[in-house]
Amino acid sequence: MNTESTPIGVNLIVVLVGNTTISVARAQGVEIHDQAGFPVADTEQAIEAMSRFELAPVIIASVNKPVSDDLLRRLIGDARFQGEIHQIGPDIPPSIASSLQPDAGTGIDRLLAAAGAYDILEQACVVVDAGTAVTVDFVDGEGVFQGGAILPGLNMSLGALHNGAPALPEVSLAMPDAAEPFGKDTEQAMLNGAIYGLRGAVRLLTERYAERYGAYPLVIATGGDAELAFMQDDLTDRVVPELALRGIAIAYSAALTGDDAIELSR
Asked: Which of 75, 141, 168, 227 has its CA 20 to 30 A from that of 160?
């Protein structure tokens, strides 16, 4: 591909393959539009959604290699996607500095969400990504990813309680009764533990990060469960569901325009 012919602000199709969900969206520059999510078992449904976007480069990031390998194979063999198809990691690095060692095993989704968060806030921040798992990561005031913590996600926590203690019921994720701090039945008690336990963990981790950093950072939440868990949380500055997708668009733009701009190939 001739990178000089690709203008900044072009449309992209950005894709994040997670543990349970394939998220697809259209990016104009780094702004995300028309985001949709599909179960990882429904690769064809995700491809159909992508095909309805204007023909554009497809940029994929993944923490689920078997699913993303299958998705990539299908896209390359699909006549509707004959333009650029790239992967974050193998083709394009995430556009964020990190204090971690290259072999630290940090998920690409954490780095991309951190890049998206710093691009919006431009200051030290805690990035809470509430999905299958919950990550609580710190980005310093220079935009350097410092690492963080990984917790069970809300559905995982509720499922583990039921699986580990069969007398506890299967519970669908929802906000507990806000007017009643005491769980008056088992379901409400489990939801209290999941939601407020997570908020408490995020608060304590943020305090630890702030103590080490010497200043209190903003907290930004993303991920499929972020709005439910953190929209009404007074610690959280804002909820931005598409941070990792924004990070994909940022990485692509940086690959084309940085001092060490790379030659992208299909």
From this structure: 227
**Amino acid identity, position 36:** A
State whether 238 and 251 are in the same domain.
Answer: no
Range of the domain at 234: 123-242
User: What's the pLDDT score for residue 1?
Assistant: 31
The answer to whether the beta carbons of residues 139 and 114 sit under 8 Å apart is: yes
pLDDT of residue 10: 67
The answer, yes or no, to whether residue 8 has pLDDT greater than 60, is no
What spatial distance separates the first Cα and last Cα of the chain, rounded to whole Å? 8
Please tell me the distance from the alpha carbon of residue 213 to that of residue 191, in angstroms, as a whole number: 33
Catalytic residues: 109
Helix 65-76 to helix 43-51 angle, to the nearest 10 degrees?
A: 50
Tell me the pLDDT tens digit for each residue of 120-150: 999 999 999 999 999 999 999 999 999 999 9
The two most distant CA atoms of the chain are separated, in Å, by: 64
236/133 same-domain check: yes
- CB-based contact 14:92 (threshold 8 Å): no
* 238/252 same-domain check: no
Bridge partners of 148? 137
Closest by alpha carbon to 248, among 57, 99, 105, 102?
Answer: 57
Backbone angles phi, psi at 110, to 5 degrees: -65, -45
What mean pLDDT is predicted for residues 8-22?
88
Separation between Cα atoms, residue 59 and residue 45, nearest integer Å: 17
Place of tokens 């489990």: 190
| Rg over CA atoms, the chain | 19
**The predicted structure's pLDDT at residue 102:** 87
